[in-house]
Specification:
The chain is an alpha/beta fold and 314 residues long. It has one domain: CofD-like domains (Rossmann fold), CATH 3.40.50.10680. It is built from 13 helices and 14 strands. A seven-stranded parallel beta sheet has the order 5-2-1-9-10-13-14, sandwiched between helices. The longest helix is centred in the C-terminal third of the chain and has 20 residues. It is globular and about 60 Å long.
């Protein structure tokens, strides 16, 4: 089995590629829930929904988030009433949040609710939250401490970032599926998707002993860089790295994960960084990493799987 760690659009795209390459029983996708929050009384899990919608083939590929062919009557009516409209909830997407909230209120865990929703949407591959407990990413900025969605959506990532906290992570346990995967002695590989390392992957790694358990795993760990040519394909990864005094490069991604990963896939445009990255003791594979089509997703997933297999064979 292969374990993938994912969050955001980049993570969802590679998750789709991995699902094209692997049978359902050979893949578990563990998703960041540090972005989760309660809005308008509803339990919102943005990264889980993004991964779920992409795997179901019903995502809005233009926006990257939400559902295709969405309508916005609810938001228009809410605006007319003077309600909070900074976080957009489409009419069809709203059903997901309402049903999730209802089931959580009835005592179900987020893992159970996620399995139910995936099943209803026809998602065959397993998707699990990183934990069933509350972990919240806090962004410390020049405007003070902001809950993640207030930084990311309400303020459109404009404030200068000074630090990050994953509140509740140190006392949170991995979800049951995640825990079982980390306990397997026959895990083929752990693949870190090209998600924002600070906002999507680090919250997963911050859960109690997750980083240590990954290090103790015999399976090779391979990351795919979300930085291409000094820029993030989507999202504020490059901006945040720069504001924290770090270079937004594929080398910096490799250094960020150094000690945890065994190899990294970088884009062709960053080929000159190979030797520098290899000096960190990592194997490097170079390919086109920008995923514009389903074929791109499948090909990049195959590259990551092959790199892991090569490392495992050494």
């Amino acid at each position: 089995m292969i374990l993938a760690l994912a969050g955001g659009v980049g993570g969802a795209k590679l998750a789709c590629g991995l699902a094209m390459q692997l049978q359902p029983e050979r893949l578990l996708i563990v998703v960041n829930t540090g972005d989760d929050f309660v809005h308008l009384g509803l339990s919102i899990s943005p990264d889980l929904d993004t991964v779920m919608y992409w795997l179901a083939g019903i995502n809005d590929s233009t926006r990257g988030w939400g559902l295709t062919d969405e309508s916005w009557n609810f938001m228009a009516a809410l605006e007319q009433l003077g309600g909070l409209i900074w976080f957009k909830l489409g009419d069809r997407d709203l059903a997901t949040h309402i049903e999730r909230t209802r089931r959580l209120t009835c005592g179900q865990q987020l893992s159970e609710v996620t399995r139910f929703l995936c099943n209803k949407l026809g998602v065959r591959h397993r998707v699990a939250p990183m934990t069933d407990q509350a972990v919240r990413t806090i962004v410390y900025t020049d405007e003070g401490a902001l809950e993640f969605q207030h930084y990311f959506v309400r303020r459109q990532c404009a404030p200068h970032v000074r630090g990050l906290e994953y509140s509740g992570a140190s006392g949170a346990a991995p979800s049951t599926a995640f825990d079982k995967a980390l306990s397997r002695n026959d895990l083929e590989a752990i693949i870190i998707c090209p998600s924002n390392p600070l906002l999507s992957i680090d919250p997963i790694l911050a859960i109690e002993d997750v980083r240590g358990r990954i290090k103790r795993q015999h399976a090779p760990v391979v990351a795919v860089s979300p930085i291409v040519g000094g820029r993030a394909i989507k999202g504020p990864a490059a901006k945040i790295l720069t504001e924290l005094g770090r270079d937004p490069t594929a080398f910096e991604i490799a250094r960020h994960y150094a000690g945890l990963i065994d190899g990294i896939v970088i884009d062709e445009i960053d080929a000159e960084l190979r030797q520098k990255i290899e000096q960190l003791g990592l194997r490097v594979d170079i390919t086109a990493t920008v995923m514009k089509t389903r074929e791109d997703q499948s090909r990049l997933a195959a590259t990551a799987i092959q790199l892991a297999a090569h490392i495992r064979a050494l």
